[in-house]
Write a structure and sequence with these properties.
Elements: H1 28-41, E1 46-53, E2 59-65, E3 70-75, H2 84-98, E4 108-113, H3 118-123, H4 125-128, H5 134-139, H6 163-175, E5 179-189, E6 192-195, H7 202-213, E7 229-231, E8 234-236, H8 245-251, E9 267-277, H9 290-315, H10 325-346, H11 363-391, H12 398-416, E10 420-421, H13 424-448, E11 460-462, E12 465-467
Parallel strand pairs: 3-4, 3-5, 5-9, 6-8
Antiparallel strand pairs: 1-2, 2-4, 6-9, 7-8, 9-10, 11-12
Helix pairs in contact: 1-2, 2-13, 7-13, 8-10, 9-10, 9-11, 10-11, 11-12
Length: 473
């Protein structure tokens, strides 16, 4: 029998999911309520505990299913504007409760952090429950500045200041999981996975899952532009390094909670699921005129950045007393900081990329760069739109201009890139299936690597860091 909340996946006989699936993203309050309802229905198999408190006083809830020795940790909501992880952890909870092969049969406990940034998720509730349109999303988009994102460790784990970050680090050190999955969402593009250790075969499973569910795979992801590939749409996260703020924001190869449990032998998988899919990100063929596309993308990003800088200059003097102006301005300043450097790095005529040259680029890479440049502009415009609305008046006359830009740039995504909405249930099902594949493959890797001198997570530990043959960074 197949349960209504687990389409296409086998479950144990005679068990049914306790709750119907949500057709939309869950809010912070819905995540907590639905997790509590699952625990009430399955008190022998599930439990819910508070592992921390957010900056605004919201509980950070960890839902655990099973009683096995081997710990898996799944982290939803590391980025405030990527709510698919909340739907995914509810789906995983239902599935692990319905199928004892995933708990007793695997000697595993599933630990599901419902949201790492619940305060940021609340700030996205203006679009979170739909209707899902690009214009509604970007006008209500919120993502904190880089230094306020709890997944990052800009000054190292010992100096982690955010309570959400400290809570996650404590959970990682307590559980020492053999697998950690960080659930992310791509607003426009395709699905892909980033790994701290190779999981052979994950690329083939990802291809099968994506094909079954009609999810484009991102074969030239902007996030992993300079990272080694482990197969189509699967990338190796480089080891952390110190970098300036601009490099940290754009390259993300800095110290993070992805690598913190590496010392315990943990395999971390960052699982990206798209909201609006774009077919071109799956086109691996060489581009027709690489340099012409790069020049156009760079020129557009410079032009859009100039418009946004001018608008910010007009708006900023009128923000005194505006609600949350500082929190909205922080990501605006981050985006405007990195845009010029990216435009130069992508432009074949500037020569600034000599020390960090672009890799060989496919059509998929160029599509991803075009999407990424436009994304930075749209996010900035959406945050400026919110700043004007928060001020309660618009003496600079910026709101009509921002509306025009947002409408035009969203139309370019729809008409120029072919962006098409993917239903929430399908996004979450895709992400859940990828997590289950990573769980199986990481379990095989850990079992194969057990032996004398091995860490509790199952992988060899040498010099304070986990390593596996052929996969050390």
């Amino acid at each position: 029998m197949r349960t209504p909340c687990t389409p296409g996946e086998p479950t144990a006989p005679h068990r049914r999911c306790a709750l119907p699936p949500l057709p939309r993203y869950p809010t912070v309050d819905e995540l907590g309520a639905r997790a509590a309802a699952l625990v009430a229905r399955h008190p022998r198999h599930a439990r819910l505990r508070r592992v921390g408190t957010s900056r605004a006083g919201t509980p950070l809830w960890l839902l655990s299913v099973g009683h096995g020795e081997r710990q898996a940790l799944v982290v939803a909501g590391p980025h405030a504007n990527e709510p698919v992880g909340g739907a995914t952890v509810l789906r995983l909870a239902e599935r692990t409760l319905a199928d004892p092969r995933l708990t007793e049969g695997a000697d595993a406990t599933w630990n599901l952090l419902l949201s790492l940034d619940p305060d940021g998720l609340r700030r996205n509730e203006g679009w979170l429950t739909g209707p899902y349109t690009l214009g509604r999303y970007f006008r209500n988009f919120f993502r904190p500045g880089f230094l306020e994102q709890p997944e990052w460790l800009p000054d190292g784990a010992a100096a982690a200041a955010l309570p959400e970050t400290r809570a996650l680090l404590d959970v990682q050190d307590e559980l020492r999981p053999f697998l950690q999955c960080s659930l992310h969402g791509v607003d426009i593009g395709g699905g892909f996975v980033e790994l701290t250790h190779d999981l052979p075969g994950l690329d083939r499973r990802l291809a099968h899952i994506a094909a079954r569910l009609g999810i484009p795979r991102e074969l030239g992801a902007y996030d992993a532009l300079y990272w080694p590939g482990l197969g189509p749409a699967v990338y190796r996260i480089p080891p952390p390094r110190r970098a300036d703020l601009a490099a940290a924001i754009t390259e993300a190869a800095v110290e993070s909670t992805w690598f913190h449990p590496y010392r315990h032998g943990t395999v971390t998988a960052v699982v990206e699921s798209p909201m609006w899919g774009v077919a071109a990100v799956s086109e691996a063929a060489p581009p027709g005129d690489r340099d012409a596309v790069l020049r156009a993308v760079s020129r557009t990003l410079r032009h859009d950045t100039g418009l946004l800088r001018h608008l910010l200059t007009r708006i900023r003097p009128h923000l005194a007393g505006a609600r949350d102006a500082a929190r909205l301005l922080a990501p605006v300043d981050d985006y405007l900081l990195v845009c010029p450097g990216l435009a130069d790095a992508w432009d074949p005529d500037t020569g600034t990329g000599a020390a960090h040259p672009l890799p060989s680029l496919s059509t998929a890479h160029l599509a991803a760069l075009r999407i990424s440049g436009r994304r930075l502009a749209l996010r900035t415009a959406g945050l400026l739109h919110q700043l004007v609305r928060a001020a309660g008046h618009d003496p600079a006359g910026a709101l009509p201009e921002l509306d025009r830009l947002i409408d035009a740039w969203c139309a370019d995504y729809r008409d120029g890139c072919g962006a098409r909405w993917i239903p929430v249930a399908r996004q979450a099902e895709y992400q859940a299936r990828v997590v289950l594949s990573a769980f199986e493959l990481a379990g095989r890797l850990a079992r194969a690597d057990r032996g004398p001198g091995r860490g509790e997570g199952g992988l060899a530990v040498r010099g304070g860091g986990a390593d596996t043959a052929g996969t050390a960074p």
